[in-house]
Amino acid sequence: MRALCWQGTNELGIERIPDPAILNPRDILVKVGMSSVCGSDLHLISGYVPALKPGDVLGHEFLGEIVDTGSAVTALQKGDRVVVVSILACGACEHCLRQAFSCCDNTNAKPHMTELAYGHACAGILGYSHAFGGYAGSHAEYIRVPYGEVNAFKIPDGVRDDQAVFVSDAVPTGYMGADLAAIEPGDIVAVWGCGGVGLMAICSAYLMGAERVIAIDRLPERLRLASARCKAEVINYDETDVHEALLEMTGGRGPDRCIDCVGMEAHGDGPQYWYDYVKQQTFMHNDRGVALRQAIRACRKGGTVSVMGVYGGFMDKFPMGAIVNKALTVRSGQQAGQRYVPQLFEHIREGRLDPSFLLTHPMSLDQGAEGYAMFKHKQDNCLRAVFMPEMIAVG
């Protein structure tokens, strides 16, 4: 089959690889219909997650049709249209039983790397390096999904593919960011980053009762979407001092809840950003913390900071003093989509949420390298490129 593979830092290409097969009775095989790029993929492609090997298949946000099932699978069958949660869960360990699915003990087949880095093994993630299990990703014609009945969800009638594909990752990540923020009716929420996850966090914050949501980014088209499609007030950090603007917009108090949807490659300006950038490029630390530091500094006393941006390791100049002295609550985690998918589909079916506007560039799988370059460099207002293996490339 054809697959989009990592071939080296910032190098991608289509390769012919063997079709996947059922390896475990609880596996399913899915014929991929749509597979989206994701901002966290850029950390892999750029070499910031040093656990890829040439030939590894990328991609983790997707939907498709089941073409085969293991002998223990009874709730799903061939022909089912499903969306698959990108972070794998077994459904039976201590963490899964309390619905902390992204903390699963059993899905990372190569636990030693994250045990060394973080103290405990992390869950497996499809298409996300050998640190997270070494599973082949979804930018391919077919994909094997372990623990299929836990991680794949039938797409309800009335939910289109362009809506459902983002329920794999971007929608539950944004929704979980708002959920972890513990939003109360009347709260003012600030969201850093207006990519797919940030836009979904904005929409989710309103669903959970926020009175106002303020979105921070620098790209005019993304800020326009945050305002027009998600009803957020916006701050362009290239033009405005974010901290001063947030204080002014909240009567000097600061937002009640702050959600970081940016992560380890945060862009910014000023000495602090360039300090981060140089240290990251020289491998003296892993993460650029511009957005997270801003969120912690701006959050009102006694407020909550929710961190959904992906961070890989260690960060200098972390403002622990602000967390302690302002009595902040900080909550984070990889998305536990299995907990949220049914209610997200209900929101979509009832018209309260429509993530389809995230899909700006439908493309053939053969255009994968082009799609990622466009996505990485924010060309042509690319919010999400979505690859369709059956689409024929034009041009």
TrEMBL record:
Alphabetized InterPro entries for the sequence: ADH-like_C (IPR013149), ADH-like_N (IPR013154), ER (IPR020843), GroES-like_sf (IPR011032), NAD(P)-bd_dom_sf (IPR036291)
SMART domains tied to this protein: PKS_ER (SM00829)
Domain Enoyl reductase (ER) per the UniProt entry, residue ranges: 8-368
Superkingdom field: Bacteria
Gene3D superfamilies from the UniProt entry: Medium-chain alcohol dehydrogenases, catalytic domain, NAD(P)-binding Rossmann-like Domain
Pfam families: ADH_N (PF08240), ADH_zinc_N (PF00107)
Protein name, UniProt field: Glutathione-dependent formaldehyde dehydrogenase
Annotated source species: Bordetella genomosp. 7
Lineage of source species: Bacteria, Pseudomonadati, Pseudomonadota, Betaproteobacteria, Burkholderiales
